[in-house]
Write the structure tokens for this entry.
Amino acid sequence: MKNIFITTSAATTFGIIDNGVMILAGDRIDIVLSNYFDTMTSAGIGNALSDMLGVLAGGLVLTTLQKFFKTEINPTTMQEFFAIGIGCMIPVLFWGVFQLIN
């Protein structure tokens, strides 16, 4: 169980940060960048920025857990595939609940 937690943590964190940034800041990114670029280019730049933040956060989580548990285990492609999918859906679900409450 510990190995699954360690190996999926980075990809789940990536998904949460990636979609979370786009959901929370996507409109603002578009407003700022649309002064200089068309909407699709602004969206692409915003997506690249959220991807970079997600990779940075996921890498930090994985490195921290590997040091804490003193292991060098790395995720498989399938573990990353499912963990990213789950991580990406977490902000979507929270945003949906937030919209229902307000």
The helical segments are 2-33, 39-69, 77-101. The longest helix spans residues 2-33. The CA atoms of residues 21 and 82 lie 20 Å apart.
